[in-house]
Amino acid sequence: MACDAAAPLYPLLGLLFLIMAGSALGSGKPTPEWQISEWINGEGTSLAELRGKVVVIDFFQFWCPGCNSFSGPLMRRWGEKYRHQIEPY
């Protein structure tokens, strides 16, 4: 039951994590290289190959009620809105 009560806080915690991670890198500094060996629906890539593009990385778990109620619908809306401008991986 405690997990259900905390579910609305998950998106906020994720946002705080991203803010803290961004401040740790520092403004104006290049993103460290990150090699992605494999995607669920295709081959891997690296950040160098994605340079100059907007990259959205969504960390979630299927068992997480907050993730399922927030992240999934948000990604679907963005996918519909920007479907002619994105290259999904």
Folded structure, characterized:
InterPro entries: Thioredoxin-like_sf. The protein has 89 residues and is mainly alpha-helical. 47% of the residues lie in helices and 11% in strands. The chain has a domain at 60-89. The chain is built from four helices and two strands. Strands 1-2 form a two-stranded antiparallel sheet. A hairpin with a 2-residue loop joins strand 1 (35-39) and strand 2. It is globular and about 40 Å long. The termini are far apart.
Range of helix content: 40-55%
Beta-strand content bin: 5-15%
Task: Provide the spatial order of strands within the biggest beta sheet.
Answer: 1-2
Work out the number of β strands: 2
- Choose one word for the global shape: globular
State mean pLDDT (0 to 100 scale): 74
Element string (H = helix, E = strand): HHEEHH
Total count of helical runs of at least 4 residues: 4
- Which structural class fits the helix and strand makeup? mainly alpha
Distance between the termini: 35 Å
Which stretches are poorly predicted, pLDDT < 50 over at least 5 residues? none
Please summarize the sheet with the most strands. Answer: 2 strands, antiparallel
Radius of gyration: 15 Å
